[in-house]
Amino acid sequence: MLLDLTVSSFDYLEQVSALMRDPVFYGGESVRRGNGEPVLLLPGYFAGDWAMAPMARWLRRIGYSPYLSGIDFNLGCPREKIERLEMRVIGIARETGERVAVVGHSLGGVLARSLGGSLPTLVSRVIGLGAPIRQDWDAMNRRIGSIMQSVTGLWQVMAGAPENCGTASCACGFSRALELSSRRATRFTSIYSREDDVVDWRSCVDEDGANFQVHGRHVGLIVNREVYRLVAEVLARPSRAALTDFSPPIM
Question: Which strands, in side-by-side order, build the sheet including 100-105?
């Protein structure tokens, strides 16, 4: 486990270094730019808005209006988070008068996908970064998944939450609601890596969406220059236009 964390840390630093040297980070001439459109950023499991800050600054630099989620640590009942995030999307749409793009990393991508289903008229597009399309421990890397289950179990005890809170077995029905909402969701774009050390990359592929493969480990996806280039391209496309005409999707 210590080795896994060390490798992931080095990958994150490597990705940051490569991003800082790449013209995409500074909004070079080759980078597709926005016109002030709102983009809501959702952090991954056990992360918070602080993790998405580099992407938020970059989005502002290339012409978008980034919004953070209000999540300090993405841990706890997903149904409660979705209810708060729905109000966040409604507030942003009301403030800007525009539909909102949602970009989510890992668990944040799962929540983003749910928002695209529950608020299809207010969400323009959904982009997942290393985000499984189902809420299930089987979507996780086995070694990391067991640790995440332990952390979640500790939270359940401390918060008095149901034993299976946040999983497909939870009695609250969030997983079922997610499945149903996803069927009517705004089209989903999945950006994933086969080198992902947290999520099984196969669980990120959406047969009904657009799927793009990059290089790098899970945590580093939020500072990955390949990811940034793809995000800029996807956001710049008309929301109802095909997302695969600029680059063939990798399945």
Answer: 65-68, 38-42, 100-105, 123-129, 188-193, 210-214
The one-letter amino acid code at 170 reads C
217-232 exposure pattern, b = at least 16 Cβ within 10 A, e = fewer: bbbbbbbbbbbbbbbb
Considering only CA atoms, which of 134, 86, 117 is closest in space to residue 186? 117
Chain Cα centroid distance, residue 238: 20
**Is residue 160 left, alpha or beta, with left meaning phi > 0 and alpha meaning psi from -120 to 50?**
left
Residue ranges of domains in the chain: 2-236
d(CA 150, CA 156): 10
What share of the chain in percent tops pLDDT 70? Answer: 71
Residues 237, 34: Cα–Cα separation, whole Å? 10
Whether domain 2-236 has CATH 3.40.50.1820: the reply is: yes
pLDDT digits (tens, 9 = 90+) for 176-200: 556 555 555 568 999 999 999 889 8
